[in-house]
Design a protein that fits this description.
19 strands, 6-stranded antiparallel sheet, alpha+beta
Length: 432
């Protein structure tokens, strides 16, 4: 008897993307004219198929010819850059989205946690949603009741158990949703990066639970950008790029291939000192990052960064509207997507940054760059503190810190992550 629980063959998912010209205001006559045009357009293509060569529509394949097998008890990390097709794949495996072509065979019950509130009815209480989710998984009332106390204890929502979940915070939603998904004993547990909503302690608890699920012979599919977490949890990996599988096998090998993909072609900072440049006008967003430069102490563009260098990161942004109490943020991650540095233009939350209309910039200045040589990722953006992120990079920008003999010892301090300049005081000689 085969121990394969998921078999995917030649899977594809196509979307039709509509392109519309941005029109801030239309007269009644223009609206009526467009309505007539739309009616005639639909009569020409009654079954929703786009006209050949119609510039208003574009085919986009989120997944193309994807094939793989997953065995019982495998803990599989699904990785890839934003837009690679990871979430689309999980939605198809969870029977939320229909594939365009291909075949999927799944053996066993599947519990999915793909976004906050997945499978919850907002008007029902936490208690009622536990029983509802169990019924969706095909469990009887007695079976659900035997797990009930364990779920509630894990989720830490005892006080709000009889409150409609529409009043829950995002963290409470995730805690209860994960508790239900993990404890009602599905054969296959599917989890997207939604766990990032919870606090650090709860994330550790979830990882421990997913390890337990795998060790009990059940299967886990886990999507995350945090390679450190993937390494802790997963035994196997599957990497997607532009809707296709480009690497699969042991998780360590897949992660190495992922890191090579990210840093390929970024071995040096641009010769002009520009880490990122986006000259295209983004008509669909109100805020976006246009350019990132690195600048030296003489206000010249800097061609490379080394430990203890003076470096100024200049972040150019475009805003279509004004925000009086905003902030700019600057974040550095290592190649495993673990955040090493987080800076904000409003550290004490008392002097907000005014985001003005048009193109402007803010600087993040390091008198002494503290990171050792190696590969890093940069994420910057704009936010309204404690409320929302206005924009940030769709993909972190790869860059390098160069090797430097900072102690003039002939040795390069590469084994450390941070290299901080400190002063020392030595006690004087004491006469006996």
């Amino acid at each position: 008897m085969s121990d394969t629980v998921i078999r995917v063959e030649n899977l594809g998912k196509k979307y039709i993307i509509g392109h519309q010209k941005q029109q801030p205001y239309n007269t009644l006559r223009e609206v009526m004219t467009e309505g007539v045009k739309s009616l005639s357009h639909n009569l020409l293509k009654p079954f929703g198929k786009k006209l050949i060569g119609d510039p208003a529509y574009e085919e986009f394949w989120a997944l193309k010819d994807v094939s793989f097998e997953i065995k019982q008890g495998d803990r599989v990390g699904i990785i890839g850059r934003n837009g690679a097709g990871k979430s689309t794949l999980l939605k198809i495996l969870s029977r939320i989205t229909e594939p365009t072509n291909g075949r999927i065979s799944i053996k066993g019950r599947v519990a999915s946690l793909l976004e906050v509130g997945t499978g919850f009815h907002p008007e029902l209480t936490g208690r009622e949603n536990i029983y509802l989710n169990g019924a969706i998984l095909g469990m009887g009332k007695v079976e659900i009741k035997s797990k009930f106390d364990e779920i509630v204890a894990f989720a830490e929502v005892e006080k709000f158990l009889d409150t409609p979940v529409k009043h829950y915070s995002s963290g409470m939603y995730v805690r209860l949703a994960f508790g239900v998904a993990a404890h009602l004993e599905p054969e296959i547990l599917v989890v997207d990066e939604v766990l990032a909503v919870g606090d650090t302690a709860f994330q550790k608890k979830c990882l421990g639970k997913m390890k337990d699920v795998g060790e009990q012979g059940r299967t886990v599919l886990f999507v995350s950008h945090n390679m450190s977490t993937i390494k802790q949890l997963c035994t196997n990996g599957l990497m997607l790029e532009k809707g296709e599988i480009c690497s699969q096998g042991f998780i360590q090998d897949v992660i190495i291939n992922y890191e090579n993909l990210i840093f390929d072609g970024h071995n040096e900072v641009n010769s002009l000192g520009v880490l990122y440049n986006n000259d295209s006008i983004n008509k669909n967003e109100n805020f976006w990052i246009r350019k990132i430069e690195i600048i030296d102490e003489n206000e010249n563009l800097k061609q490379s960064i080394a430990t203890w260098d003076y470096v100024k990161f200049r972040i150019h942004y475009v805003a279509k509207e004004e925000v009086k109490k905003g902030s700019g943020f600057f974040s550095v991650l290592n190649h495993e997507n673990t955040r090493l540095i987080l800076c904000s233009t409003m550290p004490d939350r008392t002097v907000p940054m005014q985001i003005k209309q048009g193109e402007h910039y803010f600087d993040c200045v390091f008198e002494s760059w503290p990171l050792a040589s190696g590969k890093y990722l940069l994420d910057v953006g704009l936010a309204i503190p404690m409320r929302e992120t206005l924009c940030h990079m769709k993909e972190p920008i790869p860059f390098f810190t160069d090797v430097k003999d900072i102690y003039n010892s002939g040795m390069f301090p590469e084994s450390s992550r941070y290299i901080v300049a400190v002063s020392y005081q030595i006690s004087p000689e004491i006469d006996n």
